Amino acid sequence: MTLAVQQLRFAYPRGGEELFSGLSHDFATGALTAITGPSGRGKSTLLYMLGLLLTPTEGHVLLDGTPVSAASDRVRAELRARRIGFVFQDSELDPTRKVIDSVLEPALYAGWSRAERLADARDLLTAFGLGNRAEHRPGQVSGGQAQRLAVCRALLNRPSVMLADEPTGNLDHGNATLVLDALVEAAHARGSTVVIATHDPFVLSRVDEVIDL
Ligand SMILES: Nc1ncnc2c1ncn2[C@@H]1O[C@H](COP(=O)(O)OP(=O)(O)OP(=O)(O)O)[C@@H](O)[C@H]1O
Ligand SMILES: [Mg+2]
Question: Which of 7, 12, 41, 204 maximizes the CB count within 10 A of its CB?
């Protein structure tokens, strides 16, 4: 699935400064693109727009050439559920839900039953060293474990577009490698379009393209 932005501008309401100054870019399919730049420059905001969670003030986000950023809530929710995986910067996870159910949640949004995807979800947790945390709540795991959990959650549906906000921010080198390998595989082996907001030189060294905001 192709992902592009055209003439993008965004300002948060009530006097937020204008971001992106008319950015146009085609994100390479089957490749990893990093978004870098100083704190506050809009890396997370750009991912929210690519993930159809925020609507640009001007310009468009295009999926397969179709402008979708101003589509109805229903259409955007459907695209998010079926085509887009998102790893948030602060791994926002429901504290009341077990780890295994957090991983499964996007699959349920996309129309699968819990039983259909339970084995895949367990396999992903095991691959990320969280096999023995499946029945815990997110509040009972470490920051780094929560981040790996957020990556499992985003990977389960094998989305065409993977958006990850500082996915290695809380991780030691071994776990950062695990997470990055999974994102590289999603792009290079499965053809996902992967976009990562990051400052991490290790991540920057392994992506195919860098956008410096
Ligand atoms: N909900 C919001 N309401 C108003 N302004 C916001 C909101 N979220 C972010 N901003 C502002 O928009 C700008 C871009 O923020 P954003 O979080 O996208 O930056 P960033 O590049 O991801 O920074 P960091 O590297 O610290 O994560 C900043 O000036 C920030 O203060
Ligand atoms: Mg950010």
Answer: 41
